[in-house]
Amino acid sequence: MLQLSALHHIAIICSDYEQSKKFYTEILGFQPIQEVHRAERQSYKLDLALNGTYLIELFSFPNPPKRVSRPEASGLRHLAFAVEDIQKEVQTLANLGVVAEPIRIDETTGKKFTFFSDPDDLPIELYQY
Known about the structure:
8 strands; Glyas_Bleomycin-R_OHBP_Dase; metal-binding; metal ion binding; Glyoxylase I family protein
């Protein structure tokens, strides 16, 4: 068995770099750590942190293929973020022009959760702890 220490990062390839950069920084509140343009690959790489913890690498590539997201395609299912007050966060999303699904209750834990999508339709979950 591997001796893993922690999740290091999540890599996301976006179709519109500026739109996704704005979404992850201005809507989700990630802080840019480092942005690199890789001319030989016609690509940007933006390292993003949440509350001081490095979590996401946002990449751009010319003409990336579309990935099937729903219904329940194999591969990455969604990203999930813990929140203290889900109703407050859903209202904040709405104020920023992002529509979330109706809040549901997890049948196993009894906790509230909902989903919305990033600009490339990657499902993102908010889970009230």
